[in-house]
Amino acid sequence: MKIYLGSDHRGFLLKEKVFAYLVKNNYEVEDVGGRELNPDDDFPQFAQAAALRVIGDESDDPRAILICGGGQGMCMAANRFKGIRASVIWDAYEAKMTRQDNNSNVLCLPARVLEDNEAAWKGIMETWLNTPYVDAPRFNRRNAQLDQLL
C-alpha cells in the first residue's frame, strides 16, 4: 500500500512526525506537501494533490493521510473527488469503523486535537492502516451511491 501524505501549515509539524513514523515502520510514503512551514499556504491544494494521486494510483489499496487544524477542511476538499472516501478521525474506534464499513481511503487528522498526543495519532493511524474493508454488498452499494452523487 502506498500512502500519500499532505498538510497545510497548521498540520505541518504533525505531518513531519507522521512521515518519520511511517518511513521508520516501512510504509511506502510520498509527501505531497507542504514541504516547508508556510503560514500563508492553503489546504485545498494539498488535499487535491493527495486525492489525485490516490485516484490515479493503480497499485493495491493506495491511501492518503491529510492533516490540518481540525481535519475538516482537508476532508471537505478531498471528498470533492469521485472515488475518494475521506474521514476525519480522532480515535481508534472510528478509524476501524470508517475502514471496515466505508472503505475510507483518505484519513484526515485534526492537528489541534492530536499533535501533542503521540499515542493517539499512532493508534489511529495503525488501526486505519491495518483494518480491512468488510466488502459486504450493502457497503459496496452505499459506496457506489456516493460516487453517483457527483
Automatic annotation (TrEMBL):
Entry keyword annotation includes Transmembrane: no
One BP annotation, GO: D-allose catabolic process
Gene3D superfamilies: Sugar-phosphate isomerase, RpiB/LacA/LacB (3.40.1400.10)
InterPro entries the record matches: RpiB_LacA_LacB, RpiB_LacA_LacB_sf
Entries under Pfam families matching the protein: LacAB_rpiB
SUPFAM superfamilies listed in its UniProt record: Ribose/Galactose isomerase RpiB/AlsB
GO molecular function: ribose-5-phosphate isomerase activity
Binding, D-ribulose 5-phosphate: 8-9, 69-73, 102, 112, 138, 142
Annotated keywords: Isomerase
Family: Belongs to the LacAB/RpiB family.
Protein name in UniProt: RpiB/LacA/LacB family sugar-phosphate isomerase
